[in-house]
């Protein structure tokens, strides 16, 4: 396999700044830059603040460009998604990009002049299949169809777990599952642990998303003696809102705020009904937190033998698992150490190497199409 003739091949990467895709993109960009590639991150949807962009550029080494283009899950109609895809084609031409790395296959249906890799981080089709019942609402059907069409145009589809690759193949009727390259997060240096783990429970995520199961988390909070601290927004961009009176809601925390919470090594709880990977879980494991997780195939794949698994609808069972760890500090410590050891398998270097191998395969197997005229 070989890289393009260019000394520093240019990657155009898209990102969504509202969730875990943002952290994924910055970590991957940093890994690629360290390996000699040039990376531009095009942010779709609501943009980070100028200060956040400056900090992200400094940390990752990538150029970050807010585009005001629509996200597929916030777009008003298919035309907005197509317009965003065409704008990305023009941006790729202006940058003379050598490869496109999309955070969703939905934007792959435009004619990009170079190979396209798309990551199936999550999508409405698999989300609905895991969280809801009955037929998709009309507003979600076209969003699913945009993803389905995009899947047929990419050079390589990626997924962060085998479980999610299988789910994606099934929901979209793909001939073969996406290739698995597991997500990674930069593991912090092991702290000098001179104090006992904190006596509270911590969870993090977009709490307004029904997949995060805030109602059951709130029931757990009512059943345990320890505080259940929850980081993340309670209101979504489309007007979604949840009430959780038994949670200690911390609101949206930045990376430093989350790290401060996890650094105290609380018990980490996720009762998600849908989780393709779970970067928040990885961050908690990296910090040495004992894990109590919903019994999902993706979580089993990553954390079998490390976490305690519970039915995500069973608040009483989750509360009992937390009490089990609270009453047995030795077991809690053992599971926290095991989680940190397992987390070392899911580092940024491994993720970057996996993605770079896919890029090299695309450059080797697919003739790089000329950029001339692509901006016309």
Write the layout of secondary structure elements.
Layout: E1 10-16, H1 20-34, E2 38-44, H2 50-60, E3 63-66, H3 78-95, E4 99-102, E5 116-119, H4 124-131, H5 138-151, E6 156-159, H6 162-172, E7 179-180, E8 201-204, H7 214-223, E9 228-231, E10 248-251, H8 255-263, E11 267-270, H9 279-286, E12 291-294, H10 297-303, E13 308-310, H11 315-327, H12 329-343, H13 348-365
Parallel strand pairs: 1-2, 1-4, 2-3, 4-5, 5-6, 6-7, 8-9, 8-11, 9-10, 11-12, 12-13
Structure notes:
The protein is α/β, with parallel strands linked by helices. The protein folds into 2 domains: 10-184 and 348-365, Rossmann fold; 201-343, Glycogen Phosphorylase B (Rossmann fold, 3-Layer(aba) Sandwich). The protein is 42% helix and 15% strand. The chain has helices at residues 20-34, 50-60, 78-95, 124-131, 138-151, 162-172, 214-223, 255-263, 279-286, 297-303, 315-327, 329-343, 348-365, and strands spanning 10-16, 38-44, 63-66, 99-102, 116-119, 156-159, 179-180, 201-204, 228-231, 248-251, 267-270, 291-294, 308-310. The strands form 2 sheets. A 7-stranded parallel sheet has the order 3-2-1-4-5-6-7, sandwiched between helices. It has a 6-stranded parallel sheet with strand order 10-9-8-11-12-13, with helices on both faces. Helix 10 links the parallel strand 12 and strand 13. Helix 1 (20-34) packs parallel to helix 2, helix 1 packs across helix 13 and helix 9 crosses helix 12. Residues 367-376 have low confidence and may be disordered.
